Amino acid sequence: MLADVLRNPVFLRTKPDLAVGEDQLGRRIRWVHSTDVFEAASLLRGDELLLTTGIGLAGADAQRRRRYVRGLAEIGLGALALELGWVFAELPPDMVDEAAERGLPLIALRQLVPFVEITESVNSAIVDSSIVGLRFADALSQALSDALAHGATAEVLLARLGELVRAPAMLIGPDGAPLCWTGDGTGGADAPPSSAELLDGGGCGATVSVDGVPFATLVVGKPGAQSRDVVRDALDRACPAFALQLLSDRAGLATRLHASRQLLHRLAAADASPGALRALAGAVGLPVEGSDYLVALVDGGQPRGPALLREVAARLGARHAVTALDEQAVLLVAVPTGSVSAPPLDDRVADLLAGLLPRTEQPRAAVGPVATDLAGAAASLRQARAALRAGGVVPGTGPVAVASRLTAERMLLDRPTAELDQLVAEHLGGLVALPPPRREELLATLESYLDTARSKAATARRLRLHRQTLYQRLRRIEQVLGRDLDDPRIATGLALAVRAWRIRSNVPVTRDP
């Protein structure tokens, strides 16, 4: 973990200053690398600590430095450490801002210590920890295999798991309902714990796949036997024992998997009667009334899509169904009506997904609007897919596109292209006719001005412009368009036209660094 690195004796000699990431001390660091290559992101796989002197950034402007940080964040780098004194006397503010925006821990190293000493010390500690983890995983797997060989039920397997990790544990079925659970790691609990409470309290989970299909979720609370990282990795070795046990009820298992797939396929086709949807939901174990429903999805570029969605559902403590649909992993969750107040259910799901996905400019997942019945869940799925498309042409959407935040874009995507072209020509004709660099600069300024409710101060901050530069751009836009940007009726049309132009050209507006 990052906290372990910051406590390492050799690393402490650098007098490290954690400028970004105080809330990410539990972030995984699996290895330490050092390089000054600007294109370092292409050499890494994620979860590394990267040491650099900044020589590769010598002479780079703010925009290029931001691109460097952004590229590292997008491949899932664990943390970036910049040694001061070679190129930079202090961390450049633009790099600090970009790291904070991307959620990438950024460390200033204020004392020169040979990188080879740091890498040897920290990587040795990581290897030692890995050996401990492998031994624990082997012991856990062997204990569960022995229990299974002696005819252990799922309840007995779970009780054994709880004893070994010294934490409460539960096995959640494909609908989100607990199949079995322990209380304090010794069994005997009368009521199931909440998976959300276990995970929020420092626990971890893993997906149990049966015949290659994600089926159940194994969750343990905050472990007392080993570190959370060790137990989290070991849970993957525990899952096969539970999968084999679940296979003993092949008929019931096949029925629930088939019903789950059929339910989501029917929602996607939007051709099922309310009665048919209720019957399928009942077969899966989902409530058919008194609940709110929502669909979230992860695109096919994320191989762990189904597992990520199950973890989201577990953290919500919600009944759910997950399946693969048209190269996307799709989740349907159901929560009792009125059980979620603030933040709204779609925002909660989006925040949980964003915390599990790499930080990217383009969305890799989407969340549909909340529906009050099963039939409305079909619209939630449809709008989640529309949001994923819309997010691809909206700069700054991030890893998760939320339908409620992309209403205008979703509506425009449903319109004929001729109507979009007419909207652009009517409102932005002179602006889009400018040469590309100037056109994109002014479009970015116009969009930010409209998005900030025509606040010049907020627009200047967002674009990092001097006030005078902003005023000059706004005057130029008004001259080209012949429009008063501060007229609310004009502003509404301009905002829609900017979005329509971006959709038609499929080119995100270039923002200032």
TrEMBL record:
InterPro entries: CdaR-like_regulators, CdaR_GGDEF, PucR_C-HTH_dom, PucR_C-HTH_sf, PucR_dom. Residues 4-126 form the Purine catabolism PurC-like domain. Residues 273-390 form the CdaR GGDEF-like domain. Residues 442-500 form the PucR C-terminal helix-turn-helix domain. Gene3D superfamilies: PucR C-terminal helix-turn-helix domain. Belongs to the CdaR family. This is PucR family transcriptional regulator. It comes from Pseudonocardia eucalypti.
